[in-house]
Write a structure and sequence with these properties.
Blueprint: H1 4-30, H2 33-44, H3 51-80
Helix pairs in contact: 1-3
Length: about 80
């Protein structure tokens, strides 16, 4: 059986890892925009003008996922323990 301390550590590391992936993705989308847009438009076949809107939705959905699925359980477990 997994205890509260182990779950707290698990969700803490999940949050850290997912925030790292989020920041890495945001870096490529914001700083290396031309490279990223060109690469994705060639790979996926989506027009370059549509990609910034798709990136915005992706980053927003990913951030909400991190908050709901990683950070919220972590904070709840910290409050419980």
């Amino acid at each position: 059986m997994i205890g509260i301390n182990e779950l707290t550590v698990f969700f803490g590391w999940c949050t850290v890892i997912n925030l790292g992936i989020y920041l890495f993705s945001a870096f490529f989308i914001i700083v290396l925009k031309n490279f990223t847009v060109n690469l994705h438009s060639k790979i996926v076949g989506v027009e370059a003008s549509e990609l910034p809107n798709m990136y915005f939705k992706f980053l927003g959905n990913y951030k909400i996922g991190i908050l709901l699925l990683n950070l919220t359980p972590y904070v709840a477990l910290k409050l419980m323990g």
